[in-house]
Structure formats: structure tokens, C-alpha cells
Amino acid sequence: MGKIVRGAPITKGGKFLTGDLGKGVLDALLETLPVEISFVDENDVVRYFNKDGNRIFPRPPSVIGRKVQDCHPKKSLHKVNQILEDFKNNRRDSAEFWIDLDNRKICIRYFAVRDKNGNYLGCLEVTQDITKIQTIKGEKRLL
Questions:
Q1: Which of 55, 66, 95, 103 has a CA that sits 20 to 30 A from residue 42's CA?
Q2: Residue 122 pairs with which residues in a beta bridge?
């Protein structure tokens, strides 16, 4: 095992449950994720999204601060509202869908975000192009 070196955070930031990161590092980490993420707060207001300009479902910066219901097609609003209501009322913690889009398979997952006491903080949307993942056969090991 390597020696653990303890010291100051890489940049000024915050301590998390399992370490500390500066804002710059956290921003870079979120942009590096191989998925798109969006966060909607407990009042259904869009607060964050990553991968600006390179998304499966493009979003303008002006979406920040808007109600999530204003960002979805009317035909899917009943589903969006049902998922959010279920999250808020602790009836479920996730929902998953997949669609075909431009010869790609897109997986869209929603997760209830809760604090350590189980209070609803919002909804995390995770979107990923899983087309290549679906073609995986056998194994490819690191060692």
C-alpha cells in the first residue's frame, strides 16, 4: 500500500464526507464525468448542469433558475411531475428510461437526492449514450 499523504486541499474548497476538494477541482471532475448530469432543487428549479455545449439534450445557460416543467415537452410533463412527486413523498428513489435517438441508445436516469436525515433536496438527472456499452462482449481486464 502507498503512503497516505495528508495536507491542505488542492485549492480552497470544502470538506466532504470522504475528503476535500476545491471548487476548481470539483468543476473539472463534474465536466470529466462520462455522463451528463442536471440537478433540480426541492422546488423543481433547475440549479446545475454539466457539459455545457456538448450534450445529448442541449441546454442554454438560461435554463438555470427555471422550473424543470418548462424544460420538458408537454407530452412528458405528467411523467416528470409523477416522478418528482414520488421522490418528494418518499415513494421511490429512482426512475429509469431509455430511448433511441439518432441511431444511439440513450439511458436517462433520475435519482432522488436526500440529506443524511432523508429530507428531499432535489432530483439528479443522469443521461448517457450507452450505444457502445451495449456492444461489449467478454472481458477486458486491467491485469
A1: 55
A2: 41, 113
Give the predicted TM-score (pTM) of the model: 0.84
What confidence score (pLDDT) does residue 121 get? Answer: 98
DSSP SS3 for 80: helix
For residue 85, the model assigns a pLDDT of: 98
Residues ≥6 apart with Cβ < 8 Å to 103: 131
| Chain Cα centroid distance, residue 39 | 6
Looking at domain 35-134, what is its CATH homologous superfamily? PAS domain (3.30.450.20)
Contact 93, 113 (CB under 8 A): no
How many other C-beta atoms can be found within 10 angstroms of the C-beta atom of residue 88? 14
Burial of 22: CB neighbours in 10 Å, binned 0-12, 13-18, 19+: middle
Closest CA to 128 of 51, 66, 73: 51
